[in-house]
Predict the 3D structure of the following.
Amino acid sequence: MTSPPRMSSAFIDSTVFFAACASATGSSRLLIESGLAGQLFLYFSSLVLLETERNLAQSRPQALGQLLLYRAKPTNIVDPPVDLVRRAMQIVHAKDAAIVAAAAHGHADYLVTLDKRHILSAAGAIASTFGLVVLTPGEMLAHR
């Protein structure tokens, strides 16, 4: 007897969560909606939730309602230990180390981001150090 296939898991960073809240269309919104529909196991961190709320309040306050709707749904919060954040700081920009560390700490299969400069550009190092596949929301949707 074979076991059922394991559901893929993805850690969502604040760039993706912001885009999902700010736009009713697009890959970020589709990805979050598919996770909330049970098609994908989604992880967030406390930092991602706080950063998304702060950025929406500053630049897209009209999208805060969507954030509240998403936050009302059950979410999987994973916050990394300090030693893992320090390890991540060796391969990514300091401000993004907690994101990479949280994804690794949650044992996510994927780290989904729109941050080209700091995270997507370090995808190879992140994969070899933490075993995470780094994708954009569009790539994640195509990959499933």
The chain has a mean pLDDT of 93. DSSP finds eight helices and five strands in the chain. Residues 9-143 form a domain with the Rossmann fold fold (CATH 3.40.50.1010).
